Please model this.
Amino acid sequence: MCKNNYKEIHASIILRTLLMLDNERALGQLPFFHAYGLGVLLMALCQGTTLILMKKYIPEQFSDIFSTYKITHFHTVATFLRKLIDGSTELEKLKSLRYIFTSACAADPKLQSEVLNSLKNIKMYHMFGMTETTHVVTYQRVNLNRAGSIGRILPFMKAKVIGAQGENVGKDVIGELCLSGPTVMAGYYGNKEATEEAFTEDGWLRTGDVAKIDNEGYIYIIDRIKSLIKFHGQQVNISNYLV
Model:
């Protein structure tokens, strides 16, 4: 369930983070039924950016799409980021590319470094969000000096880390990442029990992520408390596959 002011805030977040203008071209590779893909679609509509839709990933045609349509913005996930530099993509055909954005699951620092070394003229940004926050809540340009960070919390959102008893912990102390702000969901529709489990007593959303926040406000995800993982952008419960 979303709150009443969701639309205005969502639009504001998109405008601040996706850096798209009316003279640029983005690749619409992500499914629009995901918050990330929907954000790209809405941004293109708001800014007049040309959005090139890709029905299906075909390795042999992937790099040709960039050169044919002069793609400047590539919004993707770590799985496809790997495909950029695994040898199947002709990097010389990506000359028009200026920005890469990743979200849904974190790209490891080694992969980020490989991409930046392979594509010298691009700027890469990483974003973090959840379905329960309706869009991204952290955002940063990839900085290899802060390897592993998902960035700082966006304006008008708040983040904190709590211990096992629900107490606030200090900087650089590991605990569960919790979020608060106007884009956080009101709850799971028709499921009071799940809603109560998702929030702390003082109303903060429990992300299920083990994390820490450093002295400059940069957040680092260490592990998962919950058994849900992202696989190709989808939520998968690994307990269903463990024996």
